[in-house]
Each structure stands twice: as C-alpha cells, then as structure tokens.
Amino acid sequence: MRRDQIITLSIVLSLTAAVLAAKAWVKSGGQAAGTAASAPPALVEKASGTLTQAPGEPEATPASRTMSSPTAEKPPAPVISFPTDGRPVLLFFNGKYGCWCEMREYEAADGSLASVPEDLLAKFVVRRIDIHQDRQAVHEYRVMFPPAVILLDAEGEEAYRQEYGVYRDWLIEEMTALLARRAGG
C-alpha cells in the first residue's frame, strides 16, 4: 500500500470507530461504559433529535425550527406595529456582519433590493430588519434562512416569502402581482 492510502484508511477506521462509539453511547442513554456518569442534557437531547433551547431565546417549537410546508397549519400572523397607510408591506431581513460567505449574500441582497424600481418600492411600506439586532421580528416571522423578503398584503397576511437570498426578478414579479390582486380585488 502507498502512504496516502494508509493514511486514508486510518482516517476512515478512526471515524468509523468514533461513530460506533457515539451510537453505543446514545443507545445506553448517555451512560459512559462501566460508569454512572452521564452526558449533559443538551448533548443527549441533540443526539436523540429533540429540540434544545438556548438561554434567552424565545420558546422553541417544532414548527419554528422546521421549514413550512403548504399543508402545514399556519401560525397566527404577527401584529404589524407600524403605520401602513393601507399599503402592502415589504419586510427585508438582512445582516450586517458574519463570515465572508454570509457577507457576500447580505451584500448581494442589498444590491437586489436597491435595483428594484423606486416607483414600485414607493407603493409598499418597506421595513429593513437587521437579523442580528431584531431577533424578535426574525422569530415572529419565522425567518430561518436570511437574507429574506416577505411581502404582506394590506391586511397583514403573508402573500410571498423569499429566503436564502433576494432574487430581484422574482421579487418584482410578486410585488407587481400583489398590487394587481389588490387593484382587482
């Protein structure tokens, strides 16, 4: 065997042994072999697939930690606490700091929103929400993958959601469709 093959094989064997040991530990309820010591509850919960809640975080529910599906029952919409003058609302969730890859996403999202025609943006109440500063809004609107845009109709009901980034053409299309529904309805 060549040296690189031996190294690769030893890494694979080490990882396999670690995975088997972790599975045995979880199966034993977090008990170390031959002792009465157990792992911290957070590790047991994480290994067993249950939710953990960090201190100071809003109460975690399975629905708030999973992506919504079309058939899932929607939680009540958050109450809008700012004047809308009967206009629809565009909520823009973005960040200002993070690793280099997050910063690229945040800057691209800023550019996408800035490239939406001003006359179209003027027909909406635009709220910029810093995901690092306003954790309550992030939780209330269930934003899991910023940058994100949420369009609300004049009654405050969610009409469109875009997460994992802001895509200008889709956003303009949905904003225009929301205004057309409003004018026609």
Outline of this structure?
The protein is of the alpha+beta class and about 180 residues long. It folds into 2 domains: about 5-50, no CATH class; about 90-185, Glutaredoxin.
Secondary-structure-derived class: alpha+beta
- In CATH, the topology of the largest domain is named Glutaredoxin
The dominant shape is elongated
CATH class of the largest domain: Alpha Beta
| Contiguous helical run count | 6
User: For the CA atoms, what is the radius of gyration?
Assistant: 23 Å
Residues in helix, %? 40-55%
What is the CATH architecture term of the largest domain? 3-Layer(aba) Sandwich
Provide mean pLDDT, rounded: 75
Number of domains: 2
Q: Proportion of β residues?
A: 5-15%
Cα(first) to Cα(last) distance is: 74 Å
Sheet with the most strands?
A: 4 strands, mixed
Order of helices and strands: HHEHHEHEEH
Topology (elements, then pairings):
Blueprint: H1 3-27, H2 41-48, E1 89-94, H3 100-114, H4 118-121, E2 125-130, H5 135-140, E3 148-152, E4 158-162, H6 168-184
Parallel strand pairs: 1-2
Antiparallel strand pairs: 1-3, 3-4
Quickly list its features.
185 residues; 2 domains; single chain; Glutaredoxin; 41% helix; four-stranded mixed sheet; alpha+beta
